[in-house]
Amino acid sequence: MVSTLTSLHLITACSGALVFCFWLYTRRGWRPNLPPGVCGLQGFLNLPSVDGKIWLQILELNRQHGDLASASLLGTHVILIGSAKIAEDLIEKRSVNYSDRPRSVMCGELSGWGKIMLLSNYNDWFRAHRKLFAQEIGSNSTVAKFHRMIEFETRRSLRCILDDPARLQAHVRKNFTSIILRISHGYVTQEGDDPLVELAHTANSQLSMASAPGLYYVDIIPFLKYIPSWLPGAGFKRRAKEYAAVLHDLVEIPHNYVKSQLAAGTALPSFSSRILGKQDLTEELEDNLKWAAATMYQGGADTANSVGYAFYLAMTLHPRVMKKAQEELDSVVGVRRLPTFADRPSLPYLDALVTELLRWHTPAPITMRSTRVDDEYNGYFIPAGSYIFVNIWAMLRDERTYTNPLEFRPERFLGDNPEPHPGSVCFGFGRRRCPGYFIGHSSLWLMCAQALAAFDISKCVENGVEITPEFNLVGEILAHQAPFKCSIKPRSSQAEALVRQEFSLSE
Ligand code: HEM
Fold first, then answer.
1. Count of Cβ atoms closer than 10 Å to residue 394 Cβ
2. Under 8 Å between Cβ of 156 and 178
3. Strand 37-39 and strand 68-73: pairing?
4. Is 162 found in the same domain as 138?
5. Cofactors per UniProt (predicted)?
6. Which helix (H) or strand (E) holds 369?
7. For residues 148 and 154, what is the distance between their CA atoms, to the nearest angstrom?
């Protein structure tokens, strides 16, 4: 009896201690000097609700707790970075420790996206892919060989917008996807809807959903990945299977296309065809190439077109800016031809407009990292394995950096005291900075230049009422402006004729 009582006391005491430890653990975080923020379940339940926009949620926490804040639950620490200075200090200057991605069970493991560069950890596989990217599109000079093709695709897309402005978003998406598919796989998209453009769009939407922080419980409790798919509540496993099938197509279909074109002797020069044609091609190199080319295709088919679509919104909302850029184009280029890359150095206002666009609209509002080892910053402890959320969106709207940041004002980048160029933030940081920077920026610039030379973009009028669209960024790690209406008309019959003029790929 006595020993039973003792055992009972012992069990009660141990349970009490465990509950206390758990409470302490979830309430205070594992280390007391984590950056300030929210801890434990209650902290998470009280997170500000901001319409599903995680960048606004992080902004709110950084406002409450400082530019380096934290959120901890069950031993997982999320570090929230809200200033460009801290991002530079940690992610750029200590990049050895800050170049992995957080573990992503739903997207990286169950859906198979872990072999795509965006989700891969900083390892040999990743480095091999970055190297392949750098050789193909890693500088302005490597990208210059694609200028004529970009001009061709942009002209093609302007014609589609002219004929069918109601499907603006689809035409813009097709423009950027066509450019990247030419480079990655030598694939020429067909007129009208193209299956590979649609496939990339579907895959990117799924990627964004599957990798959205906190959307799937399996990312918080990884062992859930072992539960059978047929169990109630295992819907995420069935969904992951669907995502994996789409990813399989994204990787295999264009790769097999290049192989069949090579076999038939009809392959256009491309990133894939060049490597596949090597005498010393190994299975390992082919696998690397297949995934690197799919990464290029997937990466180039989303962010740039998100900015391209936002350009039309910016012009609809800011006619003063549009007119000023058109005046510059008319005086430098004239009205007898459309602008080309050769005009770029003579068009400073247009350059500033594109820079402002990259600040104003953020297609990747947050980026994520995870730490390899313990670190310390300004006296705060950042444990190994922390998830680091970098709020790109907030940095580009930081009043300490940009005057009246909500205004669309290209002039902020001109004159003797220009404000900081957003390029060091909007394309990400350190060893994971966007490898599509040169091709993305160039094709975006040309689209803006030619659209401004050819079109007047304005608010549309329905039943006598002028419709003012809203800036409404929606999405998760990949974000877009919500669909909006605007009016797109040729600036003159001469401008229309220029858009419709035959354009050959060879000069
Ligand atoms: C204007 C257009 C673009 C913007 C604003 C943009 C922005 C970004 C950002 C913010 C990141 C995250 C970087 C980080 O984690 O620090 C990223 C990554 C990436 N981008 Fe872009 N991007 C653009 C165009 C492109 C294009 C055209 C391609 C493809 C050719 C591309 C391919 C990638 C890839 C593969 C990654 C993953 C890099 C990694 O994880 O190491 N992007 N981009």
1. 26
2. yes
3. parallel
4. yes
5. heme
6. strand 366-370
7. 10
Does one domain contain both 182 and 203? Answer: yes
* Domain of 374, in residue numbers: 31-111+365-396
Cα of 80 vs centre of ligand 1, distance in Å, is 20
Distance from residue 462's CA to the centre of ligand 1 (Å): 38
Residues 335 and 388 in one domain: no
Q: Which atom of ligand 1 is nearest to the CA of 358?
A: 5
CATH number of the domain bearing residue 51: 3.30.43.20
Q: Are 185 and 297 in contact (CB under 8 A)?
A: yes
Let me know whether 295 and 319 are in one domain: yes
Verify that 442 and 316 share a domain, yes or no.
Answer: yes
Measured by CA distance, the residue closest to atom 29 of ligand 1 is 300
Structural domain includes residue 16: no
| Ligand 1 atom closest to residue 430's alpha carbon, by position in its atom list | 16
User: Which atom of ligand 1 is the closest one to the Cα of 307?
Assistant: 1
- Cα(269)–Cα(271) distance, integer angstroms: 7
Same domain flag for 260 and 343: yes
Ligand 1 cavity residues, CB under 6 Å: 117-118, 180, 295-296, 299-300, 303-304, 307, 363-364, 367, 392, 426-429, 432-436, 439-440, 444
Task: Please provide the average confidence, as pLDDT, over all residues in the chain.
Answer: 91
Q: What's the confidence (pLDDT) of residue 233?
A: 86
Question: Which pLDDT tens digit goes with each residue over 400-413?
Answer: 999 999 999 999 99
Answer whether residue 9 is part of any domain: no
- Tokens 């004529």 locate to 148
- The DSSP call for residue 420 is P
The answer to whether 185 and 75 are in contact (CB under 8 A) is: no
* Final residue before a domain boundary, out of 374, 396, 418: 396
Global pTM value: 0.92
Q: Which residues make Cβ contacts (< 8 Å) with residue 161, sequence separation at least 6?
A: 168, 171, 172, 451, 455, 488
User: Which residue's structure tokens are 């509540």?
Assistant: 233
In sequence order, which residues have a C-beta less than 8 Å from that of residue 351 and are 6 or more positions away? 344, 413, 445
Q: How far is the CA of 434 from the centre of ligand 1 (A)?
A: 4
Q: Are residues 402 and 391 in the same domain?
A: no
Q: Is the dihedral of CA 281, 282, 283, 288 positive or negative?
A: negative
pLDDT tens for each residue of 436-448: 999 999 999 999 9
Ligand 1 midpoint to CA 117 (Å): 10
Q: Is 487 strand, coil or helix?
A: strand
The number of the ligand 1 atom at minimal distance from the alpha carbon of 101 is 40
Our mutation pick for probing the ligand 1 site, out of 132, 362, 434, 476, counting the most ligand atoms within 8 A of Cβ, is 434
Residues 261 and 327 in one domain: yes
> Is residue 288 assigned to a domain?
yes
Look at residue 496 and tell me if it is in a domain.
yes
Residue 373: which residues within 8 A CB-CB, separation 6 or more? 97, 384
Q: What is the pLDDT of residue 281?
A: 92
